[in-house]
Amino acid sequence: MSTFPVLQESEGEWTSDKTVEILGLRIPAYFVPDPQLLHDFITGFQTRRDDVFVVSYPKSGTTWVQEIVWQIYHNGEINSGKIEDRVPFVEEATNPKSTQPDIKTLPSPRLLKTHLSYEAIPKAKNKDTSCKYIYIARNPKDAAVSSYKFMKSLGSSTGLNAPWEYYVKLFIEGKTMWSQWSNHVLGWWEHRHDPNVLFLKYEDLQKDLLSNVRIIADFLNKPLPDDLANLIAEQCTFKGMMKNVQSYLLRGKEDGPKLLQKGVVGNWKEHFTPELNERFEKEVMAKLKGSGLELDFEL
């Protein structure tokens, strides 16, 4: 029987979000009522050949890529159904309060979302059940800001009671949800040449969405005619997706929280002091040295 530490940092009256450590990752406690059940679900997961996992560190463009993949598989259809119903979240699969479909009984092809590390994610037992993984990476300064705003929008359910300055300190130290950013992104970056892994960058999608829609479609063996590629790219801009904003409200609540926020590059500059930026460079970005991974922090 495994043990699953419940983790919550504190400093004076400030507290971090409450997480449970499962498979080396800090997973938010608010949707893991039974850690053993989730652990067993992930480790016993049987992949299918046509499964597609959309993977990221939180707040890195997951919802964006989920919608692109959905539209590729559905000929550019705009569906007002909740994104978590159309592309269910692996880590919520054992939460009895979740209303998303049962992943195990979903018909193929299954389109799935996850924030699991490369080490933890379900993999094929043999080549006949080998599936595809699309990983989206975002510069971690913007990801940190977006994570903090999202966590605050969830209210007291997360246990987070802290200002931005304390949250980003925890982010740097790998003590927020899904643990250390650099470990997560580098774990997937090392497998970017695997034939069933597509590694994307959020900022590249911002620069040229149409080209990346085509790249995703080709990776999925679903090449698009020009008119459909253009349609999907237009519908999957931030402006286009905001026309269907009800689809991206967490748990379907009309007053939020929203899975879509600003959808910009460089918002971190409004939140980082020079001192904080220097620490972030030394303790987070320095870990990428020698990896070949480079990210844009402004466009």
Automatic annotation (TrEMBL):
Tell me the keywords, alphabetical order: Transferase
Which range is the signal sequence, renumbered to this chain?
A: none
Q: Which residues form the Sulfotransferase domain?
A: 50-292
Q: Name one GO molecular function term.
A: sulfotransferase activity
Question: Which family does the record claim for this protein?
Answer: Belongs to the sulfotransferase 1 family.
UniProt protein name: Sulfotransferase domain-containing protein
**Native species of this protein?**
Pocillopora meandrina
